[in-house]
Write a structure and sequence with these properties.
Elements: E1 3-8, H1 17-30, E2 35-40, H2 41-44, H3 61-72, E3 75-81, H4 89-97, E4 106-112, H5 123-132, E5 136-141, H6 147-150, H7 160-185
Parallel strand pairs: 1-2, 1-3, 3-4, 4-5
């Protein structure tokens, strides 16, 4: 069973995107699809990084912990709000903090907003940043419009059947990419020396 790290990106008071992170954790675990851990950027409370991890002389325990959790996960699911057409500084901060850890890492993106577009305006800029650091973005989206109406504070969807149906398609794409990545790490048949 793969291990998926869910990044809950918002650090704002009264954030709604965290509800979606909780939903995905519950969905993945209830359906026995993956082991899951939420990496809550509000709890990490990172400073504004002045350098990538690999160039820092004395990184904190929290920085090393976050890096290891991204490195060891087979896939990452980012849940991000849209703020004024962009994604939050807290997320950009941790994306730029790492580099090698993102290489070929399957990353799925769920965008969240209070409005009717579900944060879809943020997807292009976030995908571009991830592409530049060589992450493998999953070709599926999970936009959540009107998040406070769609999920309660514990991540329970108001319309469970419809939400689970959408989630199944989204998560299946992430799991496919994870499996493909795992297979590509195995030695190719016939690539050894002839006996």
């Amino acid at each position: 069973m793969p291990h998926i790290a869910i990044i809950s990106s918002s650090v704002r008071t009264g954030r709604n995107s965290h509800r979606v992170a909780l939903y995905f954790k519950n969905y993945l675990e209830t359906n026995s699809l993956a082991t899951v851990e939420i990496l809550d950027l509000k709890e990490y409370n990172f400073p504004l990084f002045d350098e990538r991890l690999r160039f820092q002389k004395n990184p904190s325990a929290g920085m090393l912990d976050f890096a290891e959790k991204i490195r060891s996960a087979e896939g990452v699911l980012i849940v991000t709000p849209e703020y004024n057409g962009g994604y939050p500084a807290s997320l950009k901060n941790v994306i730029d903090f790492l580099y090698d850890e993102w290489h070929r890492k399957p990353v799925a993106i769920s965008t969240v907003s209070d409005g009717v577009f579900g944060g879809t305006q943020v997807i292009t800029s976030l995908q571009f940043s991830l592409w530049k650091i060589r992450a493998w973005t999953v070709p599926a989206m999970f936009p959540v419009p009107k998040a406070p109406e769609a999920f309660d504070e514990n991540g329970n969807p108001k319309d469970k059947a419809a939400t689970d149906k959408r989630a199944a398609n989204f998560i299946n794409e992430l799991l496919w990419c994870i499996e493909a990545g795992i297979r590509m790490k195995k030695p190719l048949l016939g690539s050894g020396e002839a006996g």
